[in-house]
């Protein structure tokens, strides 16, 4: 594949360490570590990833997500109470509630135009 006058080390992938370091410097991120024994410096993304991996963070995130889902479901229940259906206690999915709300708003708009 390589001609006689080209060595593997002459190709860009032959110098991955220096190539990646120079790309990281151009992009503004700090290298995670080097092979020369220098201290490791973590980028903001790596710090964020490590923090998110903790049990305390996951627990807090799960709690926030539960609160968000409960609020979302309460909003759908309130909207459902405002929509006329036969029978009134008919179980509707969220998409059915949204579609029925769109139709009901269009109907009310039509009534106001008359």
TrEMBL record:
CDD domains: bHLH_TS_HEN1
One Pfam family matching this protein: HLH
Biased composition (Basic residues): 47-60
Residues annotated as signal peptide: none
GO molecular-function terms, A-Z: DNA-binding transcription factor activity, RNA polymerase II-specific; protein dimerization activity; RNA polymerase II cis-regulatory region sequence-specific DNA binding
SUPFAM superfamilies named in the record: HLH, helix-loop-helix DNA-binding domain
Keyword Signal: no
Keywords linked to the UniProt accession: Developmental protein, Differentiation, DNA-binding, Nucleus, Transcription, Transcription regulation
Superkingdom classification of source: Eukaryota
Every BHLH domain range: 56-108
GO BP term, pick one: nervous system development
Biased composition (Basic and acidic residues): 35-46
Region Disordered, annotated ranges: 30-60
Full protein name: Helix-loop-helix protein 1-like
